């Protein structure tokens, strides 16, 4: 497919599919995280209240995997950084991912709407700090020194995603909305394409391995692996601008 002639701000929504070829599992694919563990056991405030050690184990393992030498940004992450650098208008990447691969690739206008695996938050003083080690029941808060209340600074099911006002403002003003590597099963992110169409009258395109749950909302679709399709799409955009 060719890219449309688009001029103006771009909002890019990314999901787990963009990091799959970097060595991080997706959630809902056949071999995904939710095929091995129930989200109700590890990704809700109730799960943390019931069995915090189990929730810590889950995120400690994912944090270690993210920090292992096998995991690195892939050409799709680098292509989005290139888009931000060379596009004449604003590019905002809104990611549902809690990994730091966009940052490592050089993207700077970035919102982690589901939080970040490499940050921890104290449930007592609410301070958020950079975090690379395992968290445990007896981990003291570096700020208030209380033990037992540290948690990953991620958004669990039933909690409010971050920076929603800023995201909706950007979507309302975008000319192009691109969704990459997300199955479109989780709100509010799954509803962004509708906002982009109905409020901004933006062109909407999805780049994904397979049609997402919301595929009929998109003007265009590019199906294939992110490492191939995202750099090619960015090249077409930059070539046409
Ligand atoms: N290239 C492009 N897309 C891919 C690739 C790839 N190499 N591999 C998988 N995909 C696609 C899958 O086809 C699927 O549609 O990525 C999508 C991943 O979907 P999910 O696993 O549902 O991940 P995501 O949409 O990011 O999940 C949203 O759900 O559990 C929560 O909080 C978690 O942020 C996450 C949210």
Mean pLDDT: 96
Write the element-wise H/E pattern from the N-terminal end onward: EHHHHHEHEEEEHEHEEH
Q: Give the cofactors and ligands.
A: adenosine-5-diphosphoribose
Largest sheet: 6 strands, parallel
Low-confidence stretches: none
Amino-to-carboxy terminus distance: 16 Å
Number of helices: 9
Let me know the number of strands. 9
| Approximate strand percentage | 15-25%
Percent of residues in helical segments?
Answer: 25-40%
Shape: globular
Structural class comes to alpha/beta
Strand order in the largest sheet: 3-2-1-7-8-9
- As a whole number of angstroms, the C-alpha radius of gyration is 18 Å
Question: How would you characterize the overall build of this protein?
Answer:
- Helix content is 32%, strand content 18%.
- By secondary structure, it is α/β, with parallel strands linked by helices.
- Strands 3-2-1-7-8-9 form a 6-stranded parallel β-sheet, with helices on both faces. Strands 5-4-6 form a 3-stranded antiparallel β-sheet.
- The model has no long low-confidence stretch (mean pLDDT 96).
- The site of adenosine-5-diphosphoribose has 23 residues, from helix 1.
């Amino acid at each position: 497919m060719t890219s449309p002639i688009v001029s103006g701000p771009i909002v890019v929504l990314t999901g787990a599919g963009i990091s799959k070829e970097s060595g991080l599992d997706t959630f809902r694919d056949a071999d995904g995280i939710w095929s091995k563990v129930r989200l109700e056991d590890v990704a809700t405030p109730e799960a943390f209240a019931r069995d915090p050690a189990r929730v810590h184990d889950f995120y400690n393992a994912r944090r270690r995997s993210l920090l292992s030498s096998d995991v690195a940004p892939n050409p799709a992450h680098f292509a989005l950084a290139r888009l931000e650098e060379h596009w004449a208008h604003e590019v905002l990447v809104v990611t549902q991912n809690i990994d730091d691969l966009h940052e490592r690739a050089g993207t700077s206008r970035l919102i982690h709407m589901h939080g970040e695996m490499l940050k921890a938050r104290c449930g007592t003083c609410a301070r958020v700090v950079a975090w690379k080690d395992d968290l445990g029941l007896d981990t003291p808060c570096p700020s208030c020194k209380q033990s037992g209340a540290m948690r990953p600074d991620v958004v669990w099911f039933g909690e409010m995603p971050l920076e929603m006002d800023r995201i909706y403002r950007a979507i309302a003003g975008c000319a192009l909305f691109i969704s990459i590597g997300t199955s479109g099963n989780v709100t509010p992110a799954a509803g962004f394409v509708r906002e982009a169409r109905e409020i901004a009258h933006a062109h909407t395109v999805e780049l994904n391995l397979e049609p997402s749950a919301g595929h009929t909302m998109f003007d265009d679709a590019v199906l294939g692996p992110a490492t191939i399709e995202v750099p090619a799409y960015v090249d077409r955009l930059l070539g046409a601008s």
